[in-house]
Amino acid sequence: MDHDGGWLRSKLEQNCFTSQPIPDRALSFLVLIAAGCAYPGIPRKLECNEQREHVCEISNFTIVESMDLTEYEFPDHPHLAFGMFPHSDDSTYVVTITKELADILQTTEKLEMQNVSLQTMVLWQNLRSLEASHNNFFELTVEEGQNYQLRELNLSHNRFQTIDFVKALPALRVLDLRHNYLEALDFSLFDMATELWKLNLANNRIQTISTSGSLHLPRLTSLMLNDNMLNVLDASEWRFSMLQDLNLARNRLRYLSMCEVNHSFPHLQMLYMDENRWDCGHLNATIRQLHLLTVKPMVYYTNSGNDDDEQCPKSVEDICCY
Q: Quick check: 50 and 29 in contact, CB under 8 A?
């Protein structure tokens, strides 16, 4: 007993940097609590909170680029969440998802990282849904030749200025890019996204939208372009045969080509047009043609109650014109 106790005391003192002798009566207690200290190679297992059913939620944890990921054992779970969004959680920071961590999370199909200060991320093939809103996210890295399965992507309230990664995501069905820093956009990026049915580009700084050749998005039903800086919408090369809702509110548009609308959006049902710079003569003609096509001209933003004749001298069906 004395021999074994002396050996264990020596090991604990060596591994835990204990400077004082350890009494024999404390040895049994230390054996239980000092395993991580005595065996530093054993990774710390990250536990899932049990507050959300079918979701492995990890909080009170920080991931930065320089950290040694071998010190942690990540849960093998199909639905992983870092942080407790939308609840306040100042204890969780996931600044980056590196290639090393992406390889570790290969079995995760749905990932939530909202309001955790995320900046950069490497995508992996098996991920099908990514909720990464309310961060400082500006770079999503994809590799050529990979068969990405991502279907739902929420990047709203971030800092994206370019979205070239879209070219590598043919399985996308829903893409939310509200409240980013996009200024000019080439819609040819979506050429391979033939499964896309909802695209939200509202609340950016988009001034121009271009297309290199004809663009066919056969499943797109909703396109949100409101709250941008568009002066012209050139839809002549678009073939969005299933588009039903088109939101153009709060831009700088003066006219809209009904030939393009009829040709590019043959199944359009609702067109939000308010808070632009419509020419009154053209707006009258446009709305008449919309009625003939059974398309409803809609107002997206409700009136605040402060009518100002100088700000809106005329209107057609509650849509201001000049």
A: no
SS3 of 54-87:
CCEEECCCEECCCCCHHHEECCCCCEEEECCCCC
Q: Are 300 and 247 in contact (CB under 8 A)?
A: yes
Q: Which DSSP helix (H) or strand (E) runs through 31?
A: helix 27-33
Which tokens belong to 204?
């950016």
The CA distance from 319 to 300, in Å, is 10
Q: How far apart are CA 136 and CA 5, in angstroms?
A: 54
CB burial of residue 197 (10 Å; 0-12, 13-18, 19+): middle
Provide, for the chain, the percentages of residues in helix, strand and coil under a 3-state DSSP scheme, each rounded to the nearest 5: 20, 20, 60
Helix or strand or coil: residue 176? strand
Is residue 270 pLDDT above 90, yes or no? yes
Cα torsion through 122, 124, 125, 131, rounded to 10: -90
Alpha carbons 253 and 250: distance in angstroms, whole number: 9
Please report, for residues 50, 83, 187, 191, the alpha-carbon distance to residue 53 in angstroms, rounded to integers and kept in the order given: 7, 15, 39, 38
Q: Render pLDDT for 226-263 as a digit per residue (tens, 0 to 9).
A: 999 999 999 999 999 999 999 999 999 999 999 999 99
Cβ–Cβ under 8 Å, residues 311 and 260? no
Q: What is the pLDDT of residues 280-293, one digit of tens each?
A: 999 999 999 999 99
Q: Residue 105 and residue 124: Cα distance in Å, rounded?
A: 8
What does the alpha-carbon distance between residue 173 and residue 186 come to, in Å, rounded to a whole number?
19
